[in-house]
Design a protein that fits this description.
Layout: H1 4-14, E1 21-37, E2 40-58, E3 61-67, H2 72-83, E4 98-101, H3 117-132, E5 138-156, E6 160-179, E7 182-188, E8 191-192, H4 197-201, H5 204-218, E9 222-223, E10 227-233, H6 240-247, H7 252-255, E11 277-280, E12 301-306, E13 309-310, H8 317-323, E14 331-332, E15 341-342, E16 346-349, H9 356-361, E17 365-377, E18 383-395, E19 398-404, E20 407-411, H10 412-417, E21 419-422, E22 427-435, E23 438-446, E24 449-457
Parallel strand pairs: 4-6, 9-19, 10-17, 16-23
Antiparallel strand pairs: 1-2, 1-5, 2-3, 5-6, 6-7, 6-8, 10-24, 11-12, 11-16, 12-13, 14-15, 17-18, 18-19, 18-20, 20-24, 21-24, 22-23
Helix pairs in contact: 1-2, 3-5
GO molecular function: metallopeptidase activity
Organism: Neobacillus notoginsengisoli
GO biological process, one term: proteolysis
Length: about 450
């Protein structure tokens, strides 16, 4: 992508005013986005984005610059611009590059760039037909197709020199059901760190029917009561609560500044013994998986909470300096336009021993959240509120009528302490996570869990 001699000269320029570490991140990205609505392709957008990011450290100071000019003169100009913000006397030399190959944890069989749009459209049309024909009340189906190929080169003044190819594919299905003046929406968005083979092997019947089923089911939902109840949260995307309310608090971005409720608590009990919380970027072909992070570190499995005890954090290079700790392979960024920082990959509560049937039958009265929707959280405190896309009442150990308008309100660390049953049906859900280094693909996951008490916000009757 760039020659070693050019990269060495750029890093040398970045260190010219006294920096003690310099890094270059070269990115060449291809994207394809198609949208199908009302049985026809409405949009088909393809693009290519190329750029270079240059970062310089001096102690606890970090400076970042980027450019879309990949000529040597333009790169040296960007490196010099970054260096000018650094004041120091120590001269750091660029170490000889040790070129290594990224481990292929996410094998790609079919590059989407090699697949004609007609094959992609065929997948979308089939998905549309399945969802549209689910029930007569389905009035609209929108199918969004996405694939991307991101080629990166990462080199730094410590001798790192590594290239990586990342290929991701995702299908998003939204169904709208209408009855009279009532309208409900269902959604499912599976994704993977895979090529076009992902779409060819995807169970379209399952995902399209689920999106439609949610919409149709919620047409008959009663207003959710409000109060404090035991809440059963199902697997897969149910893990979004702990991703937001706990996961971000375990990132060094917050911990290094003591702006996390988990800061300086290694070795403390933060959850019941039945809870282990893991971030694992090495799961083959999962949506949030990586071969290497965006600082050139190998992906790894990081155990954050083990049997209720806080064991570690997610750490990038710069915040690792602040904390006196090594990187955990967690430095990620949306693109060359962002400096990396500590981020999650596939973060989940580990599998427990209870069956879903046991968890429901052991709940006398409560709320069952089958599919979570969006929400918001204060990362400094862990306070959150999340909408539930599909919910049910639980009475005498059995599922009752569907409920609409359910909102879960609470505090992440406190909710973590109140998990009293963990299921054996671990599953992952694909999503996008936004933070200071941009929007990145992540998986959230868990088995079905029960929380002994969460404040539930409901809706007034119609």
């Amino acid at each position: 992508m760039l020659s070693k001699s050019v990269i060495e000269d750029v890093l040398t320029a970045a260190l010219s005013t006294g920096g003690d570490f310099a890094e270059i991140f070269v990115e060449d990205r291809f994207t394809n986005n198609l949208t199908l609505q009302s049985g026809r392709i409405e949009t088909a957008l393809s693009g290519r984005d190329f750029g270079v990011g240059i970062r310089v450290f001096k102690g606890f100071q970090s400076v970042y610059a980027y450019t879309t000019d990949f000529e040597k003169e333009g790169l040296l100009k960007a490196a010099t611009r970054a260096a000018q913000a650094i004041k120091g006397k120590t001269e750091t030399r660029v170490a000889p590059f040790i070129e290594r190959s990224a481990r292929i944890l996410n094998p790609i069989e079919i590059l989407p760039q090699d697949v004609e749009k007609a094959r992609k459209a065929a997948i979308m049309n089939k998905t549309y037909e399945i969802a549209k024909n689910y029930h007569s009340s389905i009035s609209q189906v929108t199918v969004r197709y996405m694939d991307e190929e991101q080629n990166v080169l990462i080199a730094n003044s410590e001798g790192t020199f590594i290239e990586d190819k990342r290929v991701r594919s995702r299908l998003a299905i939204q169904a709208v059901a209408v009855r009279g003046n009532r309208m409900e929406t269902g959604f499912y968005g599976p994704g993977a760190h895979q090529g076009f083979e992902f779409f060819e092997n995807l169970n379209l019947e399952h995902y399209a029917n689920e999106a439609a089923r949610i919409a149709v089911t919620m047409l008959d939902a009663a207003p959710c009561p409000s109060g404090k109840f035991p809440v059963i949260i199902d697997n897969e995307f149910g893990g979004v609560i702990f991703h937001e309310a706990c996961g971000h608090g375990l990132e060094a971005t917050a911990v290094a500044r003591d702006s996390s409720v988990f800061a300086n608590r290694i070795g403390e009990r933060v959850a019941p013994e039945i809870v282990s919380y893991i971030d694992d970027g090495t799961l083959p072909n999962e949506w949030g998986s990586i071969n290497i992070d965006d600082e050139g570190e190998n992906a790894r499995k990081n155990i954050l909470i083990e049997n209720g005890i806080l064991k570690g954090y997610l750490i990038d290079k710069f915040n690792g300096r602040r904390m006196g700790m090594e990187s955990t392979g967690s430095g990620r960024r949306e693109s060359f336009r962002f400096a990396p920082t500590s981020r999650m990959t596939n973060t989940y509560i580990a599998r427990g021993t209870s069956t879903p049937e046991e968890i429901i039958s052991n709940t006398e009265h409560g709320i069952y959240a089958k599919y979570m929707g969006g929400g918001q959280v204060n990362p400094a405190t862990g306070d959150y509120n999340f909408a539930v896309m599909e919910a049910y009442e639980v009475n005498n150990g059995k599922l009752g009528r569907p409920l609409k308008g359910a909102t879960l309100i609470g505090n992440g660390p406190k909710t973590l302490q109140q998990v009293d049953m963990v299921g054996n049906n671990l599953g992952h859900g694909a999503g996008m996570c936004g933070s200071q280094s941009g929007s990145i693909p992540v998986n959230v996951g868990q088995p079905m869990i029960r929380v002994s008490e969460i404040t539930v916000g409901g809706t007034k009757g119609e």
